[in-house]
Amino acid sequence: MLYLSTRGHADRKHFCDILLEGLASDGGLYLPEHYPQIDDARLTALRKVYAEQGYAALAYEILSLYIDDIPADDLRALCAKTYTKEVFGTDAIVPVRQLENNLYIEALSNGPTLAFKDMAMQLLGNLFEYELNRRGEELNILGATSGDTGSAAEYAMRGKKGVRVFMTSPHGRMSPFQQAQMFSLQDENIHNLAIEGVFDDCQDIVKAVSNDHAFKAKYKIGTVNSINWARLLAQVVYYFAGYLQVTKHNFEKVSFTVPSGNFGNICAGHVARQMGLPIAQLVVATNENDVLDEFFRTGVYQVRGSANTYETSSPSMDISKASNFERFIFDLVGRDGERTRQLFAEGVAKDGKFDLSRDEVFQDAAMKYGFVSGKSTHADRLATIKDCYERLGQMIDTHTADGVKVAREHLGAEPMIVLETALPIKFAATIEEALGRQPDRPAKFEGIEDLPKRVVVMPADVEQVKAYIQQHCD
Ligand SMILES: *Cc1c(COP(=O)(O)O)cnc(C)c1O
């Protein structure tokens, strides 16, 4: 299996070459040259593997279709090491439960940081360690976080050989729980840099360091952002696992609703559907930051400026543009790299938008690819959390609530699975607002705020961050 860029560059690469890279050299995103097909016989075989050997074995089966440069036994071992009950809380790893009638919830948020990003990031940590060791190389991951992504990366990379993490975050602006999660890690390869500034200052620092090409090369600076293909691929597995839990026969279809921000999660659903998994609809649920909902309703993709990017109570979906969206658009325009380049490198980069409303391919988004969308607001979120708790006895987090709200607007004949992307404890203030009580806290997080913290506070100064990295690399 070879990988190509969505912007048409002629290079073709193997999995491990793009594993440690970000964007392709032409600014595009990597995708496989084709989607391996799962026919009826193969789906039956996967059903058996999942039932008899569990999630890690299923993950190996899917991943091995896309990875031809890691020996089978090694890849199998990496999957087995990643998807364990110890790390993800249950043998099922992603258990599906019924909410009501035809509406189900698939729990993706029982990993170390209680958010779905662990599903991919835990695998990425093991893949990085494996590949860096094989190459005799090191990697220093520099990132900026306002909460979720940073902690998922730290929990994935802690203790990994050949990897250090330098994670900047805005000093004093994360919730006490989030700070405790990140800063209580005592691993020597994890460095928390609390920057005296806002999240944008942290991002600016990361950009400035990455633009210093000499420094970047000398100190082997890399990232783990959501455009990484390996992350997306790891997410494809739980669409299969969700489908197999809810169906008995391959002729049955299901739909998925996905609380979406950067379009990484639901893009994995698109890949699963392109492989032939019997998915009826893929429902994109957004919060008040509705750039994706707008596209699927109107055909206009218009990124937002900072004045129109809102801080909401489902903060992990607060985006101004959706960084994985280009992957879907590439497929939508018939895998035309030049057209994709025009839409993104000219349309989005220069005018902040493109408009497919009058283009016949726009109809395909719904008709051929099964995409529909909806939007949820703070008031919807509160009402949905309250209804699920008081009437149905289930406590859900704010992002999942956006999913349930939108899923209910798209219920059809087939089962609808909403992906649960975080646990309520991470967003306690909004749960309290909705229910008048604190969310339950998993036992392993009792007293986490009182643990000793490992964090360095520094001004929003690129040179000081560089000096810190330099000191801790030798
Ligand atoms: C990251 C995140 C999302 C959005 O996922 P995308 O892949 O960016 O669409 C939704 N919910 C939670 C809790 C998240 O952490």
The CATH architecture classification of the domain at 96-113 and 229-435 is 3-Layer(aba) Sandwich
Largest sheet: 6 strands, mixed
User: Uncertain segments of ≥5 residues (pLDDT<50)?
Assistant: none
Rg to the nearest angstrom?
21 Å
Could you tell me the number of beta strands? 15
Based on secondary structure, the structural category is alpha/beta
**Multimeric state of these chains?**
single chain
Total number of helices: 20
What ligands can be seen in this structure? pyridoxal-5'-phosphate
Distance between the amino and carboxyl termini = 38 Å
Strand proportion: 15-25%
The percent range for helix content is: 40-55%
Largest sheet, spatial ordering of strands: 3-4-14-9-10-13
Basic shape: globular
What is the C-level CATH assignment of the domain at 96-113 and 229-435? Answer: Alpha Beta
CATH fold topology of the domain at 96-113 and 229-435: Rossmann fold
- Roughly what is the average pLDDT, rounded to an integer? 95
